[in-house]
């Protein structure tokens, strides 16, 4: 696939995440897909999960079941860029939401999507982990 086709695929995948439609979301990932975030990030800690999610089914479960348990309302994403080069698409964004504890959440993210055979094979997620911990757990 071309860089532009890969960029379009990642945009479509991202739109599918908000639907919480398990079958739709699953269509975008390889069976052996991985999602890697920084160890100890607030989302993984708060949900009692791992920073390294392995397998399409586990990723779909995170996006449709776990994510909405922490980010309970008013989830919005302000995309600042979708940059594609070959089979790699980089997404820059700011996410806002209301957390399960009632706190407001706002954090900047960078996602690196690696595609294989027209599907997402690996996602590397980067964010301000200290900021995330302050919003999820309070100042410490």
UniProtKB/TrEMBL annotation:
Pfam families on file: SnoaL_2
Superkingdom per UniProt: Bacteria
Cited SUPFAM superfamilies: NTF2-like
Domain annotation SnoaL-like: ranges: 11-122
Protein name: Nuclear transport factor 2 family protein
């Amino acid at each position: 696939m071309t860089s532009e086709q890969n960029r379009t695929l990642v945009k479509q995948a991202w739109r599918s995440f908000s639907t919480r439609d398990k079958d739709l979301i699953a269509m975008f990932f390889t069976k052996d897909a991985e999602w890697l975030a920084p160890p100890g990030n607030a989302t993984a800690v708060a949900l009692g999960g791992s920073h390294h999610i392995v397998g399409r089914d586990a990723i779909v479960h995170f996006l449709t079941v776990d994510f909405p348990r922490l980010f309970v309302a008013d989830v919005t994403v302000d995309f600042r860029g979708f940059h594609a080069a070959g089979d790699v698409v980089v997404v820059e964004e700011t996410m806002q939401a209301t957390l399960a504890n009632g706190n407001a959440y706002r954090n900047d993210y960078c996602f690196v999507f690696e595609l294989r055979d027209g599907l997402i094979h690996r996602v590397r997620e980067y964010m301000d982990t200290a900021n995330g911990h302050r919003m999820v757990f309070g100042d410490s």
